[in-house]
Amino acid sequence: MLSNDAHVARLTRDALIVAKRENLSTVACALIASNCTNTHIVPVPVDRGFESLTRPIDIDLDLYLDIFHDREPSVVDLDEIMHEIPTTSAFAASYGWTVFMSTHRTPNLNTLVTTFPRSGLIAGPVYGSFIVVKSSQSGAAVDVVEGDLSIVKDVLVDRALVVIARAKAAFRSSPPIPKANFVFNMSEMLSCILQYCDHSTVMSISRLNRHGRLHAQSEIRLRVRLLLLPFVPKAAFASFMDMLNDTGAVIMGSVARHLFTINSIFIEDLKSLSFLSTFLLAVVPYAVMTGAHRELYTSCADLNLAVPPGRHYACIAWFTEHGYSSWTALEDRKPISGLAHVANSYTCGHKDIAQSKY
Fold this sequence. Notes:
The chain is an alpha+beta fold and 358 residues long.
């Protein structure tokens, strides 16, 4: 897609304009473009969706890399256009690195890569353009600086090109699915389909591209919101999520378990097998879960939160503000046996359900 250094300069200005117009943040990434004479550090807009961290997969590659060939975004598996190098790599310098490649059907020869140290180890010519994203140990994308460029070259030569070449060959050989893009790009239809998908399928959709990721995030957020309705007022959901983010608390227990079993084929099949439970349990003990066992995965009697040390007072304050006025320290028992060795205190809050309209 890119032809020269002047073109990169123009795209850099366009990226800043897009980020300002759409109120997006930017992160500095390394661009190794075909037919360019230098490796460029360019600002790339970031669309975080509902995430608080700026992750490598959230960056907007469209301005710099030719990934989407149609007028609307195509269905693209991110694993076919990216290669992740974790912070544990020997030469990663305590940072993670993610390499994205262009997928043009007739890419230009990349002569810049041949000027990198040890580029002679690369068998054959290199085509297309690449963006390298730097990330911290927490997974957040951070700015690439001039001092990182030697590592960027090593990352591209030593770790990424073999994987990228294999992925590009697979990408070209995969025949397109008729009408897949039409269905995928129709937001209303995709949202409707995701309502009937299990958790792992929704997560797979989130790996396709930014369009799929935003819809997957919206679907999971909706499911969490519905599961929390007995415990968190509808109007306070956004405030509750902010509280979780501020305190570092996580949802666990029956609510989390129910989230992962929504639309699960295994759980749904238990309905049709319930009439066999008496016979099968007599012949093969524990072969089939009874209706009572099934409710373990489909009902939520309470909301359990795991809170970092020193942060539970903020959680209690939030719940107290929203009607949980009675609090009891559970010193004589541990509600969840799996936490016996990692948690040191337990507190239970109650709310007058009879007077609650939720």
